[in-house]
Specification:
This protein is 30% helix and 17% strand. With 795 residues, it is α+β, with helices and mostly antiparallel strands. The strands form 6 sheets. Strands 1, 2, 3, 4, 5, 10, 14 and 15 form an 8-stranded antiparallel beta sheet that branches. The chain has an 8-stranded antiparallel beta sheet with strand order 6-7-8-9-16-13-12-11. A hairpin with a 2-residue loop joins strand 4 and strand 5.
């Protein structure tokens, strides 16, 4: 056991150590850092190459201490640019750390990890085929000038609220002096943090949330300061740590903590371990860090992965009965399939069982204001939620989809929804995992998808008839009623009158009207609701739901298929129309700094959802007529949707959300999306990898029109669409929301063609779509297709 001296968080002993360090550096003893509150804080890059948490087993479908995995750890972490970035404790959106990285003083100046290094992310625990079995990472950063290399091993303690970093630093050429830089953002902001340091430990806090970092050996010197004014990185500009501030005193702000490590000469290396404990008191945070050291960090890792009798990630992966089978459809040996399974389970809250978030990231975070608490993508959208639950079911995970389904009432509008004065039954647009309201627009697909999920769980036999009937009466019937009747909503700003299938917002959350993708979900949701109503003894409602579905389905082409559009031969599905005439060239709304285009000049892939759910056949003439426009790479970049990547004869197809999409970086300046909350006309949404999976699903439906697909058909889809999605993954096997499409100058952000931008990574929806495509190919039929829908409409 390494030397673990007792750390007194606020007592004289701790300050004495700080005084000694201050005396050595020439700073005033026990000095309080000046310069509060420091620079305005931001978050970190969302281009994660790793994300993780411990595996925690349910106890009767909930997260409670005392189950097979013992105490529940509520810590999540992420990695970008080779450094530890947003780290959460408590609820999954409650970030406590912005970043932990190293600065190295060299004879040529200061080199900063992330900015001045290359990075490689690997998994520590893999099977014989190299497929990851746990989200524990080995991260290697190397100075671009070849002066040093840093290897970090990162994982959490499954029995405590603690994070482990085991670090080795090697001087490759010349002398280097490393400094650890910790940037707390306690309680999910970076403006109200307090801190104090000694050579033995760092302590940061805001209110009743605390963080304690403990090194395996004391720092040579330590200092805390306010970013941009008195922090260690600012101090190191002259190559020396001259300041040694022991605390932030009575003021709070945007802080950084710095710890000096011994100087290394060429060829020398240094190993240090660091544990960061979290708690609702300083003592609890310190106890968490101490407990990990006392257990032994090798033993912590063994428990994390599930070696021997310990229940951990290996056990969860082994429980996924369908994973080995569906991984055989991969073209990379199954590596991305296994990583995707991990990512879906990682991105679940560990207080509210089944609360599946969209992404453990904050898109374009390095320019996103961190002065106010926000969730970013660390929140529940029922649409993303459905995709993830269905993918987990495709893996053979029975428990998580059931927990997810049982969670859904928390995000359904009803009499108990705070502030609700309108109709209920619909599902909230976006919420915190504890159900706290965030966005409250009505998106009809997000109300249909919980019905679809419930039906699927029932047909899988995971919900009994009695359980289904109970859920139908309490949750699914109100949702189906809303999809038929609509009504006046009354929640926060939203007092709209909803008249389905006209949706207040479609799946891209920007436009109102009649949408092919929304209508596909609504028709499917009502059709399976009719099946459940009939089974539950409610024949009247069953007939009512089916009649509404028939009406909506029967008007799809009349409402959403133009016959005089500006593209190709003028006949194709449009993204959305705000009236029932798709031929009047009416403008749709402007969004994300872009123009308000005529409806017939905006095409998206939403029409393919009609095929996925069984509302239309794959060879329906309206579907087939739309494909050439959707795929037209001759359109000008503003309206073009498809972009292919790679050499001739081996292209990877990719698609943007729709033409005129402004949800992305500025193609003219390279600036991030919405910097400072301002939209710019140069903003451009890029290619989203999950559309490659959506197209793969369509192609499977197409080759299945006349019967079961042939092995050659399956292999062709694998080689184009499965392999295409695998090519979009980064070196940590993370799949992004968006990848760089080649339009504009990428040098501002150093983007590579077909690789993730600083949008949300890992995006759970993308990983889910990949896994569902593998399951669909393994089964020879589309996983998301609903038999009652297909048999009624896709004839």
């Amino acid at each position: 056991m390494r030397n673990l001296k007792t750390f007194c968080l606020a007592g004289a002993a701790g300050l004495a150590l700080a005084s000694a360090a201050a005396a050595q550096s020439g700073a005033a003893p026990n000095a309080v850092a000046p310069g509060a509150p420091g620079d305005l804080p931001t978050w970190s890059s969302a281009a994660k190459t790793g994300a993780g948490s411990s595996y925690e087993a349910y106890v009767d479908g909930q997260y409670r201490d005392g189950g097979p995995t013992g105490a529940v750890s509520r810590v999540w972490y992420s990695i970008a640019d080779g450094v530890l970035t947003e780290t959460m404790y408590g609820l999954i959106h409650e970030a406590q750390i912005k970043a932990l990285r190293f600065a190295l003083v060299t004879p040529e100046g200061v080199s900063l990890e992330g900015d001045d290094t290359t990075a490689r992310t690997e998994y520590i625990d893999t099977d014989a085929e190299g497929r990851p079995l746990a989200p524990a990472y080995k991260v290697t950063t190397r100075d671009k000038s070849g002066r040093y290399e840093i290897v970090k091993r990162i994982y959490s303690d499954p029995d405590r609220n603690a994070l482990v970093l085991r670090v080795e630093i090697k001087a490759l050429s010349g002398e280097v002096t490393p400094y650890l830089l910790l940037e707390p953002h306690i309680a999910n902001t970076g403006v109200d943090d307090s801190g104090q340091v000694t050579a033995e430990a760092f302590h940061a806090w805001e209110g009743d949330t605390h963080l304690v970092l403990k090194p395996s050996e004391a720092f040579a010197a330590a200092s805390v300061g306010f970013v941009g004014a008195s922090d260690g990185l600012t101090d190191l500009k002259d190559g020396k740590l001259d300041w040694s501030y022991a605390s932030t005193g009575d003021t709070a702000g945007n802080t950084m903590m710095t710890g000096a490590l011994p100087t290394l000469r060429m060829g020398q290396s240094l190993s240090r371990d660091f544990v960061i404990g979290f708690g609702d008191t300083a003592e609890a945070a310190q106890a968490a860090a101490d407990g990990s050291f006392q257990t032994g960090l090798d033993a912590v890792l063994a428990r994390f992965v599930g070696e021997g009798d310990h229940v951990g990630w290996r056990d969860y992966m082994a429980s996924l009965t369908e994973l080995p089978r569906i991984a055989q459809q991969a073209t990379d040996g199954g590596k991305l399939a296994y990583a995707s399974a991990l990512m879906l389970k990682v991105q679940e809250d560990r207080t509210h069982a089944g609360a599946l978030i969209a992404s453990l990231s904050n898109p374009w975070g390095d320019t996103v204001d961190a002065s106010k608490s926000s969730t970013g993508y660390k929140a529940v959208w029922p649409r993303d939620f459905y995709q993830v639950a269905m993918a987990l079911a495709a893996l053979g995970d029975k428990e998580t989809p059931l927990a997810a389904f049982n969670y859904l009432p928390q995000v359904q509008v009803g009499a108990n929804t705070p502030g609700n004065t309108g109709v209920g039954g619909w599902f909230l647009q976006k919420t915190h995992v504890d159900g706290e309201l965030e966005w409250v627009a009505v998106q009809l697909d997000q109300t249909a998808m919980p019905i679809m999920l419930g039906y699927r769980l029932w047909k899988l036999g995971w919900l009994t008839d009695a359980e289904m009937a109970e859920h139908f009466r309490s949750m699914l019937k109100p949702a189906a009623d809303f999809l038929v009747d609509g009504g006046k909503v009354g929640l926060l700003w939203n007092d709209a009158e909803i008249k389905p299938p006209f949706t207040q917002q479609e799946r891209w959350e920007e436009q109102q009207g009649y949408s092919p993708s929304t209508t596909a979900a609504v028709v499917a949701g009502l059709t399976v609701a009719a099946e459940m109503a009939r089974a539950a003894g409610d024949a009247a409602d069953a007939n009512r739901y089916q009649a509404a579905a028939d009406d909506y389905a029967g008007k799809i082409e009349a409402r959403m298929f133009t016959t005089n559009g500006d593209f190709d031969d003028g006949r194709y599905f449009i993204r959305i129309t705000q009236n029932e005439n798709p031929n009047d060239k009416a403008a749709i709304g402007a969004a994300n700094g872009q123009i308000a285009p005529p409806e017939d000049r905006v095409v998206d892939g939403g029409f393919l959802e009609l095929v996925r759910y069984g509302v239309r056949k794959a060879d329906d003439p309206h579907i087939v007529a739309t494909l050439p426009v959707y795929d037209d790479q001759g359109l000008e970049d503003l309206y073009r949707v498809r972009y292919d990547f790679g050499p001739e004869g081996d292209k990877t197809p990719g698609w943007r959300r729709y033409g005129v999409d402004g949800y992305g970086e500025d193609w003219q300046t390279g600036a991030n999306y919405g910097v400072g909350g301002e939209m710019s006309p140069g903003q451009r949404g890029r290619v989203w990898p999950f559309f490659t999976g959506e197209r793969g699903h369509y192609e499977l439906a197409r080759v299945s029109v006349n019967g079961a697909p042939s092995p050659a058909d399956i292999d062709a889809i694998r080689q184009t669409y499965v392999r295409g999605m695998e090519r979009f993954a980064n070196d940590g096997l993370m799949l992004a929301e968006q990848v760089w499409d080649g339009v504009g100058d990428p040098t501002e952000n150093d983007y590579a063609l077909g690789q993730n931008t600083d949008s949300a990574t890992p995006l759970a929806w993308t990983h889910a779509e990949y896994l569902k495509l593998l399951r669909s190919l393994a089964d020879g039929k589309v996983w998301d297709r609903y038999d009652p829908v297909e048999s009624r409409y896709a004839r």
